[in-house]
Amino acid sequence: MSLVVCCSFTGAPGVTTTALGLALAWPRDVVLADCDRDPAQVIEAGYLRGVDLGGRGLAPLARAHRERRSLGDELPSQLVPLQENGSRVRRFLPGFAHPASATVFAPVWPEFAASLAGLSSQGTDVIVDAGRVGRDGLPAALLTEADLVLVVLRSTLRSLAAARLHLLTLSEQVAALAAPAELGILLIGPGMPYSEAEIGAHFGLPVIASISHNPHASVLTDGRPEPRRFGDGPLMRSYRTAAASLSSRLLRREAVLDAGTASDWARMTEPMAVPR
Ligand SMILES: Nc1ncnc2c1ncn2[C@@H]1O[C@H](COP(=O)(O)OP(=O)(O)OP(=O)(O)O)[C@@H](O)[C@H]1O
Ligand SMILES: [Mg+2]
């Protein structure tokens, strides 16, 4: 099973909303982990509408680490339901509860990331909202455990200009790993104005999935009331399509890696050249 890290560079393109939409549409059991080092508690206040989560999340895991308790044992008790009564088990790990918490979490990342990977080896996929990449990249331990790192971009010039400035930091960090995760783009609003093919060719990275641009995203982000047929509407359909294609891609990649090497997979998935 797989661990997917979602991140961005600047400008709030929609990482949290997309990670949540994917988790709600994921075709297997899934945990959505809020690992944004700049906490905003968007899911707690928005989609979960301020429900009391009993102080669960990364803070008790940091405490457990200080007390030398196993994070693998502790993690399941920190998860809260993301959706009741679904065909799949969808759970949420709340993030940091204080703006400075990420700084003191530095020694915890390796064991914490390994415990997320432990969930994925027990048959639950993990989607991480890693927030903005930052000047020094993402926590190395998260990248080490990742199978796929998705940079969330809009197709606007503003979003692409930021990617041009910051992508190198992340791609160098991923490339330096002993077993690099696949790095790709998740595009929100393809064709507004740039297309998937143009963006993929420009950055030399595959656009692995796209989500439609849709004002009803605020149902997920802000917990606004669902309009009629929201579940079957274009936004949720686009999360379902992306989730199905990402999860089957992850299974195919796992099979190729079991049989061969990361370069076999890279050759199979090179972005297509755009005719000029
Ligand atoms: N598919 C979409 N279509 C239209 N708007 C969207 C879409 N996805 C997210 N948004 C909107 O983009 C805004 C930012 O969303 P979100 O908080 O998820 O961004 P973020 O990248 O996580 O930001 P931050 O860097 O602050 O964590 C919200 O208003 C949200 O509703
Ligand atoms: Mg966010």
Structure in words:
By secondary structure, the protein is of the alpha/beta class. It has one domain: Rossmann fold. The protein contains 12 helices and 8 strands. It has helices at 15-25, 42-45, 58-66, 71-74, 101-104, 109-121, 140-145, 157-175, 196-203, 217-222, 234-259, 262-268, and strands spanning 3-8, 30-34, 80-81, 90-93, 125-132, 148-154, 182-188, 207-211. An 8-stranded mixed beta sheet has the order 3-4-2-5-1-6-7-8, with helices on both faces. Helix 1 packs across helix 11 (234-259). The protein is globular. Residues 8, 12-18, 36, 40, 42, 131-132, 188, 211, 213-214, 217-218, 221 line the site of adenosine-5'-triphosphate (ATP).
The percent of residues in helical segments reads: 40-55%
User: What amount of the residues lies in strands?
Assistant: 15-25%
Shape: globular
Q: How many domains make up the 3D coordinates?
A: 1
What is the name of the CATH architecture? 3-Layer(aba) Sandwich
Order of helices and strands: EHEHHHEEHHEHEHEHEHHH
**What's the CATH H-level homologous superfamily?**
P-loop containing nucleotide triphosphate hydrolases
Total helical segments: 12
* Structural class by sheet pairing and helices: alpha/beta
The strand line-up of the biggest sheet is 3-4-2-5-1-6-7-8
Mean pLDDT: 94
* Number of separate strands: 8
CATH names the topology as Rossmann fold
N-to-C CA distance: 39 Å
Summarize this entry quickly.
With 276 residues, the protein is an alpha/beta fold. The chain has helices spanning 15-25, 42-45, 58-66, 71-74, 101-104, 109-121, 140-145, 157-175, 196-203, 217-222, 234-259, 262-268; strands spanning 3-8, 30-34, 80-81, 90-93, 125-132, 148-154, 182-188, 207-211. The N and C termini lie far apart (39 Å).
